[in-house]
Amino acid sequence: MKKYKNIIFDVGWVLADFRYRAFMKDLGFSPETEELFVNEVVKSKFWADLDRGVIDHAVAPDYFKERLPGYEKEIDLFWDNIMDIAEPYDYSEGLLKRIKEAGYNVYILSNYPKRLSDMHWTKFKFNDYSDGTVISGYEQLCKPEPGIYEVLFNRYGIDPSESVFIDDRRDNVEAAESFGVTGIVFTGYDDLLKTFSEMEIL
């Protein structure tokens, strides 16, 4: 009899590459512009508010043009091509398929802006194997806040004690563990497979 019934995954840097630096290189940004955008856009409070779903994606270009005068062209390029800022890892679809075929329920719990999730979920084929998804932008809650875990558990009738949660951030994993979930800090695909083998999941 399986000890676990549910495997819960984060998305960014676990199932998909949040490739913002490569994305900006693809757009032809200089190293200086890339660094500016990393600090002033990707790591900004605005982006955190997008994750939380309390600000509209549509206002982003005007917002940043006010704050970064002289970078209007780069700002338009960035937001017009935002679809390409994340790509699924090669292993993700196959991994979730294997887990489903092994008899587990698969869930997604991710801090992700609402509009970006609408764009990206169509190309994230691993979602075809998900039994349920909770996205921060839709809930106006972000990991590691307890509320977003409660949304997941309550919405899908998940028993935390029968669940494993994988995330690249230790604070998010520890928050899940406070509910009785077994947590795994993601450090790479090969490491995860080894841990799954040790836990007799795969």
The secondary structure category is alpha/beta
3D shape? elongated
Give the strand content.
5-15%
List SSEs in N-to-C order: EEHHHHHEHEHEHHEHEH
Average pLDDT for all residues: 97
Sheet with the most strands: spatial strand order:
5-4-1-6-7
Total helical segments: 11
Count of DSSP E strands? 7
- Characterize the largest beta sheet: strand count, sense, and whether it forms a barrel: 5 strands, parallel
- State the distance separating the first and last CA atoms: 14 Å
The whole-angstrom Rg is: 18 Å
The percentage helix is 40-55%
- Uncertain segments are none
Question: What do you see in this structure?
Answer:
The chain has 202 residues and is an alpha/beta fold. The strands form two sheets. Strands 5-4-1-6-7 form a five-stranded parallel sheet, sandwiched between helices. The protein has a two-stranded antiparallel ribbon with strand order 2-3. The protein has helices spanning 20-26, 31-42, 45-52, 60-67, 72-80, 92-101, 114-120, 136-139, 146-156, 170-177, 189-198; strands at 6-9, 16-18, 86-88, 105-110, 132-135, 163-167, 182-185. Helix 1 crosses helix 2 (31-42) and helix 4 (60-67) packs antiparallel against helix 5 (72-80).
Q: Key terms for this structure?
A:
202 residues; alpha/beta; five-stranded parallel sheet; two-stranded antiparallel sheet; elongated
